[in-house]
Amino acid sequence: MVVFNYIFSGVFILFALLQINDPDPYVWIPIYGVAALICLFNARKKYDRLAHFGILACCIIYGINLGIKNDGVISWFNDHNTESLVQSMKATKPWIEHTREFGGLLIIVIVTSINILKHKKAGA
Hints:
The protein is mostly helical. Helices cover 73% and strands 0% of the residues. It has helices spanning 2-18, 25-43, 49-68, 73-78, 94-122. The radius of gyration is 16 Å and the shape is globular. The two termini are 14 Å apart. The mean pLDDT is 84.
């Protein structure tokens, strides 16, 4: 789990750096920054239950918001035939950006959940 957490700490730092040119970096840099710190602390055997459940709750709530909004993930899936997410983002296609953001939150939720479950299994 140490290597897993160091890898994802680096991945989340990279994700945060990629947000510099994003329209809303003030939202995404802190989200990815906190996720990176949580992974770094896990790698160093400093598990913080409150931090894990806090980021998990925030990401789930924000993810639900991105999923159900008018130009969110459900709209991308139903109304736009799962249009390619790797094309350039245009202001006329916000569902692409929201779906990408949802994917980032999903990665954080999965990594955080793995750490919670692993910590619970260890009996700590």
